[in-house]
Amino acid sequence: MNKLQQLGMVTLTVTVLLLVASYLLAMLLGPALFYLTPAGLNFTVEEVQPPILLFLLFGFYSPFTLNTGHFFLLLWSIFALCFLASWKLRESFYKVVSNAFSQPFNKLFNNWLFTMPIVASTLLAAVSLIIDFQNLFGVPTGGIPLPQTDAQRFDLYLSLSYASIIEEVAFRITPIGTLLLARLFIIQGWKTTGRVPLQRRLKLFLASFLYPDKAKRMVDEKSVATNGIREGISKGEWIMLLITSLIFGAAHLFSGIGWETGKITSTFVQGFVFGVVYLAYGIKAPILLHWFFNYYFYSYELGTHYFSSGFEVFNIVYVVTYIFGLFLLATFAIYGLRRLFSRQRLTPSEPVALLPSP
């Protein structure tokens, strides 16, 4: 590793650590806003009947009415569990950071918590550029109306938090997980002689929804961990990713809450990436990536509003994340172009005849 590569690795690792620290601070901000501010405490006594979404667009309302304070705590606990799982699986965050300078670059992606700032920042920059490009041609994206009262702000906060989970259940986990489950059960039946133990079938069932890549390894199928994204995701899964992402984008447009035509494109890109990380890292990854766009920034925005004008972290966090994302986009683009040109140089334009030696 030369000095330039070492500098790049140090910069990448330090930036990732800073952004992960900002994620953990945002997690602490949520309960502080809900339970330590007068506006939040007033909102926690409200009641809510959350909608349930399954298999893309199949929805119904919960038969139970929940206290908003308890409901937020439930959502927050799910996010906390996702962060804990991200720290420990597939390779621990501590181990990846400790070995960052002594192992190949691709090994850094063995841990989702290390990978998340890279993916999230790049996706934020890409979506922002898409929206800006569409605006140049008069294609509006629209937006959710800005809340005007304390109750509206906390209602939006709760809705954004809930959407990070329920939309992933509806658009990624249930449709993609069900397709994968059916495929893996068929493959297991082909490869196994005799009756499959109930415990193994139950493990495969749960893994298909919670950790698809592990479920594939259970039946000796190609997985992202062992074969990379290109080969570790099957053709059927790529098609499913396209379909679910298109429906995800259209659902936002027809939600009636203020989004316009341009939202389809940006949300399609987000949904597609959410689906890829779901297949690669399991259920925790798309929930936390969705959390990043919904909960993370809005937590800092509300923190600036309710705690003090000196708590001006929102703009700093956004700018650092956006600049990091632009840098990564440029790096990936340069790397991709170099790979493309190197392949063209290695591929002869005309077949070369092999002449016998004189």
In terms of DSSP E residues, the strand content is: under 5%
**Shape call:** globular
Indicate the mean pLDDT: 88
Residue stretches low in confidence (pLDDT < 50, at least 5 long) are 350-358
Into which percent range does the helicity of residues fall?
over 70%
Tally of domains: 1
Radius of gyration: 23 Å
Summed up, the helix count is: 13
Walk me through the topology:
Layout: H1 3-35, H2 38-43, E1 47-48, E2 51-54, E3 58-61, E4 66-67, H3 68-88, H4 93-98, H5 112-136, H6 150-191, H7 198-210, H8 212-218, H9 224-232, H10 235-253, H11 262-281, H12 284-306, H13 314-346
Core attributes:
single chain, disordered C terminus, two-stranded antiparallel sheet, about 350 residues, 13 helices, globular, two-stranded antiparallel ribbon, mainly alpha
